[in-house]
Amino acid sequence: MEHLTHDILVVGGGAAGLRAGIAAVERSPKLSVAIVSKVYPMRSHTVSAEGGMAAVTREYDSLDSHAYDTIKGSDFLADQDSVEYFVKQAPHEAVQLEHWGCPFSRDPDGRISVRAFGGMSVKRTLFATDKIGFHLLHTLFQTSLKYDRIHRYDEWFVTSLLTNANRVEGVTAIDIRTGELFTILAKAVIIATGGCGRVFQFTTNGWIKTGDGMALAYRAGVPLKDMEMVQYHPTLLPNTGILITEAARGEGGYLINKDGERFMKRYVPGKMELGPRDIISRSELTEIKEGRGFEGRYGSYVELDLRHLGEKKIEEKLPFVKELAEKYVGIDPAHDPIPVRPGQHYQMGGVHTNIEGFTGLGGLYAAGEAACVSMNGANRLGSNSLTECLVYGAVAGETVADYVAKQPTPSFGNPVQGLAMTEETRIYDGLLKHENGERTSTIRIDMQKGMEEHVGIFRDENSLREGCRIIEDLKKRMTNSTVDDKDRVFNTDLVSALELDFMLDCAEAITYSARARTESRGAHSRIDYPKRDDTSFLKHTLAYRNPNGPRMEYLPVTITRWKPEERVY
Amino acid sequence: METDTATIRVARYRPEKSEKPYFQEYKVPYRKDTVVLDALNQVKAEQDGTLAYRWSCRMGVCGSCGANVNGVPKLTCATFLHEFKGKSLTIEPLANFPVIKDLVVNIDDFMEKLLKVKPWIIRDKQSPPEEGEYKQSGKELDRYAQFSSCINCLLCYAACPIYGLNEDFLGPAATALAYRYIADSRDQGKKARFPIVHDLEGVWECTLIGECSVVCPKGVDPMLAIQKTKILGAMEAPKTMLSPETLKAILPRGGE
After folding, report:
1. What tens digit of pLDDT does each residue of A441-462 get?
2. Are residue B32 and residue B123 in the same domain, yes or no?
3. Are the beta carbons of A52 and A247 closer than 8 angstroms?
4. How crowded is residue A428: how many other Cβ atoms within 10 Å of its Cβ?
5. Best CA proximity match to A393, nearest among A158, A52, A86
6. CATH number, residue B92
7. Which CATH number is A234-342 given?
8. Which of A110, A206, A491 lies closest to B56 in CB terms?
9. How far is CA A314 from the centre of its chain?
10. What DSSP string runs through A160-209?
């Protein structure tokens, strides 16, 4: 097997991965940095973020206010040191992105415009119409092109981490175009592969969000933290799961039930439609359960009403919402309300890291949605995640640049070489050649249905027990799965099977962690344990991979200045 | 909403099986809101896992799912089956690109062209972020905003007859992105980019057929970018034509 060598290897080419890569070469220009991504970086799911990115940039605002909003939004599960660092670095990263060319929307005085967002007590969300993710991603990607020490492996799929004596020494990766497996050695690996939304049936996430990096770390012995904390966004199009941005409410949109009521008055009268996402998603389901939803071909829904904003404002501030509503629902939001219902959007949990992105396994770091640096706790506030990718992507890149300066270059000997050969056998002799097993698509569909039904917005012991049983059963079925495509060249069937295998690990960690947390906090809502329980659960869940279901450990929450209090809006 | 059945004809190319491309027909269920990508996904999940194509966001912004649908470059996630009711429906890889497998094309050429136009902010002096953002008025933003909306889906290259004849032509998206930076008030890289866009294979190759602007799914008008770049070039001609960079770009290659 051929092998390649770099100083630093970044897995993932979205916001966090690109920011980490740029930070590393800016810190130490002589380093060789590889960005390995299963898609061309500009296809990364960062592209779909719409509403904006939060940072304190105005006189009326303060870092403490941003920190407190984030911590309260997290239902006090966020590590406060991580939040404090985040809010402090956020303005720097926002301006840096602007300097790199991001086409932010502007105020008449030429400053970057800000808008209101859920759970934020003042306007602090910077935006580029309603396509910030797209612009941020292309700005970072195009900027990364000017560094010739960043070497890209586009459309390469990482299948495993290679470890030697509690240290990562590289990865195995398939060059999808040729189907050949390579070993890429590196002194450090940064995981920046994003979330795992595709474990659910109804999600805003793109096809590529299969939790690859979470599973890679999990398999290497690193715990996944707070995986039970799954964010359900309140406004998805009911048929496709396409996201309609929270900015629609930030700009003044209403949520309406079938009686024409702005029903949020019953749940968070102080915030109305700008409450945090967990509360709004639950409120929508309560409205539906109590018979005040609309019935449609794709189930029950509520309506997002933008009509009062008028054509001009919609055109100026929310052109993508208009485009999506016209294209995929066939309505003009200036004249008709948009049908919406809640669905999976974001994973607060992820690869356990400290504030420098370090996972505890030598040389392995993580940033962005794939990571859990515990700044989002039990519920992330909208518009904090893009900024998180920049802040903690940069931290990981810089930390790793310093770390590798003192590390020897790994050599292609054992155990790494042996592990790579085993991986080659697993993929090509095991999975690819296996005949007459179950098609992977049926396993995937059953996983997504099972997670949707049993690990959704409202959970209880019975549903979660059943969820665990389903996942264990699917894992068994996976060992007898067959791919149709036996070719090497661009075998998306094979890649999908490997992705599904990763997703099953994520699904397992989510479900077991959810079952073990017998309280309700943030997005984790247990019907059988409806109250937050700070005595027993003011702590992070750590799920360690284990053959018979994960082993659970717990870690205290870091509290600096904000004592946990009842979360009332 | 009633369910109907359509027959889609998909171009297949499996280099490990056969040198020759061929067509394969699949029957797929569809409703009013079914897009071509849904049909491909139905085939992949339930009929034939060997079919290869790219996709991710399914909301018209990641730019990966382009294909020629009845000969016209389209995002398959934004093209509805019902529009073809009663007609045959043929899905082929984007024209003008080498095919890797089935609907997956090789876009190396575009990736090189993108790099070539230096798609990043060039300034004589970078200010540290601590000094705050570069101010930009709404008017200044409007000068380049539409050109920054390119999602690199490459439908414009598939539609461009010039690119079909001459793959060295810089082409619509790369020029639009070059112009996006040239027109950005924060950028000072016009001098660095001019030799590239005004190279022999640059904007002057374009004969203003305008297919690029017709097929763009994001309302970008690459032909306008090409026009504007030509005008800027003509205005700057007395200065730039004599500069060493320009001479180097215009003189026949291979002599360096």
Report:
1. 999 999 999 999 999 999 999 9
2. no
3. yes
4. 15
5. A86
6. 3.10.20.30
7. 3.90.700.10
8. A206
9. 28
10. EEEESSSBEEEEEEEETTTTEEEEEEEEEEEE-----GGGSSSBSS-TT-
Task: Indicate the residue among B105, B120, B145 that finishes a domain.
Answer: B105
Known catalytic membership, residue A567: no
Q: Is residue B255 part of a domain?
A: no
**Beta strand pairing call for A299-305 and A150-154:** unpaired
> Quick check: B247 pLDDT over 70?
no
Select from B71, B105, B139 the last residue of a domain. Answer: B105
**What are the respective helix, strand and coil percentages of chain B, to the nearest 5?**
40, 15, 45
Q: Which of 22-41 (A) contact B at CB < 8 A?
A: 39-40
pLDDT at A66 exceeding the cut of 70: yes
Beta carbons within 10 angstroms of residue B227's beta carbon: 16
Return the structure tokens found at B207.
Answer: 């004969």
Q: Is residue B139 part of a domain?
A: yes
For residue A481, is pLDDT > 70? yes
A458 - beta bridge partners? A525
CATH number at B187 reads 1.10.1060.10
Q: Is residue B160 part of a domain?
A: yes
Q: For residue B242, is pLDDT > 60?
A: no
* Widest pairwise Cα distance in chain A: 69
* Bridge partners, A256 (sequence order): A303
Smallest Cα distance from A171 to chain B, Å: 24
Q: Rounded distance, CA B72 to CA A476, Å?
A: 45
Top-tier CATH class for A421-556: mainly alpha
Is A90 within 8 Å of A54 (Cβ atoms)?
A: yes
Would you place residue A162 in the very low, low, confident or very high pLDDT band (cuts 50, 70, 90)? very high
The domain segmentation of chain A, as residue ranges, is 234-342, 421-556
DSSP state of A333: T
Q: What ipTM score was computed for the predicted complex, to two decimals?
A: 0.97
Tokens describing residue A292? 């005040």
Look at residue A1 and tell me whether its pLDDT is greater than 90: no
CB-based contact A464:A451 (threshold 8 Å): no
* Catalytic residue status for A292: no
User: Mutating which of B79, B110, B121 best tests the A interface, going by the most A Cβ atoms within 10 A?
Assistant: B121
Chain A segment 288-317 residues within 8 A of B by beta carbon are: 297
B214/A contact by beta carbon, under 8 A: no
Is residue B142 domain-shared with residue B231, that is, in the same domain?
Answer: yes
pLDDT of B200 strictly over 70: yes
pLDDT at residue B236, as a whole number: 77
| Contacts with B, A 179-198, CB within 8 Å | none
The domain of B24 spans 4-105
Is A240 within 8 Å of chain B by CB?
yes
B83 touches chain A (CB under 8 A): no
The crossing angle, in degrees rounded to 10, of helices A492-516 and A461-478 is 150
Q: In this structure, is residue B256 part of a structural domain? A: no
End-to-end distance of chain B based on CA atoms, in angstroms?
Answer: 65
Residue B252 has pLDDT above 80, yes or no: no
- Mean pLDDT within A147-170: 97
Of the pLDDT bands very low, low, confident and very high (cuts 50, 70, 90), residue B238 is low
Tokens of B221: 């008008």
Domain count, chain B: 2
**Whether the predicted pLDDT of B256 surpasses 50:** no
Mean pLDDT of chain A: 97
Q: Is B118 on the interface with A (CB under 8 A)?
A: yes
Query: Using CA atoms, how far apart are residues A274 and A7, in angstroms rounded to an integer?
Result: 45
DSSP-H helix ranges across A102-181: 132-144
Q: How far is B132 from chain A (nearest CA, A)?
A: 6
Whether B122 and B37 share a structural domain: no
Q: With contacts defined as CB-CB under 8 Å, which chain A residues touch B1?
A: 297
**Tokens standing for B229?**
């770049």
For the stretch A367-400, pLDDT in tens is 999 999 999 999 999 999 999 999 999 999 999 9
Mean pLDDT of A222-246: 97
